[in-house]
Write a structure and sequence with these properties.
The complex is a heterodimer.
Chain A: H1 7-24, H2 28-34, H3 39-47, H4 65-79, H5 81-100, H6 103-114, E1 121-123, E2 139-143, E3 146-157, E4 164-171, E5 176-183, E6 189-191, E7 205-216, E8 220-221, H7 227-263, E9 265-266, E10 269-270, H8 275-302, H9 308-337, H10 347-355, H11 365-377
Parallel strand pairs in A: 1-4, 2-4
Antiparallel strand pairs in A: 2-3, 3-7, 4-5, 5-8, 6-7, 9-10
Chain B: E1 2-6, E2 9-11, E3 17-19, E4 22-24, E5 30-32, H1 34-50, E6 53-60, H2 64-67, H3 69-73, E7 78-83, H4 92-105, E8 111-115, H5 126-134, E9 138-148, E10 151-158, E11 161-168, E12 171-175, H6 187-193, E13 198-201, H7 236-245
Parallel strand pairs in B: 1-6, 1-8, 6-7, 7-13, 8-12, 9-12
Antiparallel strand pairs in B: 2-5, 3-4, 9-10, 10-11
Helix pairs in contact in B: 4-5
The chains are: A alpha+beta, B alpha/beta.
Bound molecules: flavin-adenine dinucleotide.
Flavin-adenine dinucleotide (FAD) binds near residues 205, 361 and 366 of chain A.
Chain lengths: ~375, ~250
Amino acid sequence: MEFNLSKEQSLIQQMAREFAEKSIAPVAKQIDEESKIPEEILAGMAELELFGIPFSEEYGGADGGYDGYVLVMEQIAKVSGGIAMTMAAHTLGLGAISAFGTEEQKKKYMVPGCKGKHIVSFAFTEPGTGSDPKQLSSTAKRDGDYYILNGTKRFISNANFPGAMVVFAKETETGEVTAFILDKLSPGYSISEPWEKIGMHGGQLLDVYMKDVKVPVENLLGKIGQGFPVLLLGIALGKIGTSTAALGGTLAAFEEAVKYAREKTHRGQPIAKFQAIQLKIADLAIKYETARWLCYRLGCLANNIKDPAAFAAEAALVKAYCGDNVVDAARIAVDVHGSYGLMRDYTIERVYRDAIIGPEIEGVADMQKMIVAGSILKK
Amino acid sequence: MNIVVAMKQIPDLQQIRIRNRKPVFDDVPMTLGAIDKNALEVGVSIKESQGGKVTVLSAGNEDLEDTIKEALAAGADEALLVIDDALAVAGSDVIAMVLAAAVKKMEAAELIIFGEGSGDNYSGQVGSRVAAILDWPQVGYASSLELNGNMLRAARSLEDGEEIVEVTLPAVVTVISGINEPRIPSVTQILKAGKKPKEVLEPEDLGLQIPAEAQVLSLSNLAPESERKQVVLKSVDELVQALKNENVIGR
Ligand SMILES: Cc1cc2nc3c(=O)[nH]c(=O)nc-3n(C[C@H](O)[C@H](O)[C@H](O)COP(=O)(O)OP(=O)(O)OC[C@H]3O[C@@H](n4cnc5c(N)ncnc54)[C@H](O)[C@@H]3O)c2cc1C
């Protein structure tokens, strides 16, 4: 057993930390207030190759593995939940194309995605379902060399950016759930105003309306009726992103609490001297360390997936833990701050709002636990 | 143009803990000196605008083979390392002798760039000593550099002013940290660093014997303990006056 980072891994971590601290942190509050990520930040991320970390260089990626991806996500998420959300949804979409795409699809859609020229989406959720593929109502009807897509997708990250969108619909002839790659912003594709979320501001969340959107037959992702496996593996890979976004939030909560405990004084001594505060700091350290090693391990597992169902159960376990964990951590860190922690002037206020998103996305916490239990009890 | 950047391997200062007023070095990862990274950035940007090659040169123990990837990721084209356990504790004179011998062995180096001081000992001697051994001109504390053919024009940052000097190459330059902002390497630059050419020498290859014991031993390097004055003030005016009295502001 080896628990040390290699030189390359620690340089990747250091690179992400430096970029996050120097370029993102100074505008993190602005991103939160304006709900928009400045172009220079996206350009900087593209330059450092952060949009294609785990993917092969052949398709524009950096060949840095999912272990490299978790190290970067943690540092980015620590300073901006909104940027982490953008990166996570994008990498999830690319992950599905990488796993199920044809050679042509990978060349066409992954290269601009990995290079950060496009920002990719993955669209499953609909007004009628967020967890159950059987209830999908979007349709894809074959018409010559095209499929004609109709339906509404809800809460789709990055839907406003140009690029690929992996979209799930029922193929009308078979009634089977099937995945397609759709060029966003093609005719018939339209989007709502962005949703105004509680946190992770800057990460764009929109509804997508598909009205007779023509998708070429060659854009079928996998086979007709293979939508469920694409969804299963895609979302499992996506949980690496959501879990590490939560990990970054946990780290932020931990660091903000430690900083505040050292600075804030009562009767002439820092509150860090009080045992009640010390216990909270210890709880935060425990929460951070447990989430950290779960996420790092999940990244390593994702580099070499042998059994998608087994990986999906691992990912569900990590996501269930990290999603709840970050909410608890943020809450404890707010407690360390007292009323100040509720004020916009303090970073922990934003960290708390970002954290609360963790358990509700990429399948709610209960669904994760059902996957975990299923993997144990079905054996 | 062959540019050499000399960089020193040091413990990552941010990860050193202090116990009983002594630094604890156990398990502290090694890195390269902060100002050395500015020196590297100077070398890499000269190369980018004028062409040529940047060789990073370093002397130290065997950890260097891993540590040097940091410089190769940040734009150095190749590395020349002199490795010996004794070099990790050797004084500035020994290190300068080793680096100068290595430069002589290289093909036609024209510019050697150093940080003004190392990140740990900060003796600030090695650059000047190397220049003396090679009998090359040296420019210390450069805050900007401009290269025109064979002529190097540099601004030197001095305590109460700036001096502009010109030297002809070959030359040795030491730079200050304010000279630039070192770039952040991308993911593939980091991952490919280990694949760049790297030559590893032992002191014997340069005809040198390194004394096993350091000639200078540092017995203590603690910052002086300072007593807090704990002055209680009642108004901003009093604070301003107190700061003036201490010569902190507007004399
Ligand atoms: C910031 C953000 C980004 C998002 N990005 C995307 C995106 O890019 N793409 C995308 O497709 N979606 C995205 N979503 C949507 C998100 O993934 C879904 O909303 C989420 O999976 C939950 O689905 P739901 O809201 O329909 O809840 P539901 O699935 O309806 O769950 C509601 C409640 O019912 C319970 N429940 C549901 N089903 C069962 C069951 N079978 N058994 C027991 N209990 C059950 C759950 O435990 C939960 O408490 C995003 C959401 C957010 C907030």
